[in-house]
Design goal:
This protein is mainly alpha-helical. The chain has two helices and no strands. The termini are far apart.
């Protein structure tokens, strides 16, 4: 057996619409609160990612400088970049990877 709304009662329709509007409004409020939380979380995640990216890039530069100073070996320095940044071409320098290790064999 199916229950249907009686169209003879005009107050019931208005009450149903008001109830639906209240449910919609409370759902909207909870979704906006969730969006606020997610926005804050995204900002914190981006800040942590930026800090990590800068630290790794600095360590890669330091490592390359130490290899150049101590062993005279030039190595390209990889860079971690954000996806929205334009990539910079790697500095190939004068290093030839075909001859690596030949000095040791001679």
């Amino acid at each position: 057996m199916f229950f249907t709304k009686s169209s003879s009662n005009g107050d019931g329709d208005a009450t149903d619409r008001m109830h639906e509007r209240m449910l919609f409004t409370s759902e909207l409020i909870s979704l906006r609160a969730e969006i606020g939380k997610l926005t804050a979380l995204l900002g914190a995640s981006q800040a942590h990612g930026d800090w990590l990216r800068l630290r790794v890039n600095a360590l890669e530069q330091e490592r390359a400088a130490l290899l150049l100073k101590q062993a005279g070996i030039y190595v390209p320095i990889p860079q971690i970049q954000r996806q929205d940044e334009q990539p910079q071409p790697l500095d190939k320098g004068e290093h030839d990877f075909e001859t690596v290790g030949n000095e040791v064999d001679e």
